[in-house]
Amino acid sequence: xxxxxxxxxxxxxxxxxxxxxxxxxxxxxxxxxxxxxxxxxxxxxxxxxxxxxxxxxxxxxxxxxxxxxxxxxxxxxxxxxxxxxxxxxxxxxxxxxxxxxxxxxxxxxxxxxxxxxxxxxxxxxxxxxxxxxxxxxxxxxxxxxxxxxxxxxxxxxxxxxxxxxxxxxxxxxxxxxx
Length: 178
Hints:
By secondary structure, this protein is of the alpha+beta class. Helix content is about 40%, strand content about 40%. A six-stranded mixed beta sheet has the order 2-1-6-5-4-3.
């Protein structure tokens, strides 16, 4: 048996032990699959709305009195960005801001904790920003999202979204219009 195949066998055995260990601890699920999907869909609607400059899609992700707080992420990279309050204010501020870039957001590591008709979503979102007229420059951020959501009818909407930055790289002037 080659050393590569032996390494794979050891990794598989270790993974099985780790999975079995986690199950043995009787860690309860934080929500059912339908709720998990519906909750994460609010974040996907928001990020897709940002990537496509679609104000209606961004609006669909927020409660009427929703709050979008980018201040921790902005401060970490040396920018200032106000806390946005109210669905209409969020959309009217973000659509022009987002339309000055070509962006792509990737959502991962979503953790949902449903408590009746409220929930908290934790996720990592990588955001790539390029000036619309210059694809040679970019600014990338890996952000940690903490989102409080409420159930409105058959969908979840964000009541408060707080974004903090874990790391960034590239040309910050892309974000500041320079």
